[in-house]
Design brief:
Elements (H helix, E strand, L loop, with lengths): L1 H10 L4 E5 L5 E5 L10 E3 L5 H19 L1
Antiparallel strand pairs: 1-2, 2-3
Helix pairs in contact: 1-2
């Protein structure tokens, strides 16, 4: 997951990072949210279309790097 996070961090211009919560759901931290001083994580379902594309892309890129 850490390599996928690095890819997402780069793709999102240092905006998003992911983690897996105890329920097995992915959550995203949005570091550009001015109302979120604690950088509270939210569901990945709240991301827009382009943002949603970046999450699986970062995971695919990380997997590709690992398999190469």
């Amino acid at each position: 997951m850490s390599h996928a996070n690095e890819k997402l961090w780069d793709l999102s211009q240092e905006r998003y990072s992911l983690y897996l919560n105890t329920n097995g759901d992915y959550r995203v931290r949005d570091r550009w949210n001015p109302d979120d001083h604690a950088q509270t994580a939210r569901s990945v379902k709240t991301l827009s279309g382009g943002e949603t594309f970046a999450v699986p892309l970062s995971m695919a890129l990380a997997l590709s790097d690992k398999l190469a």
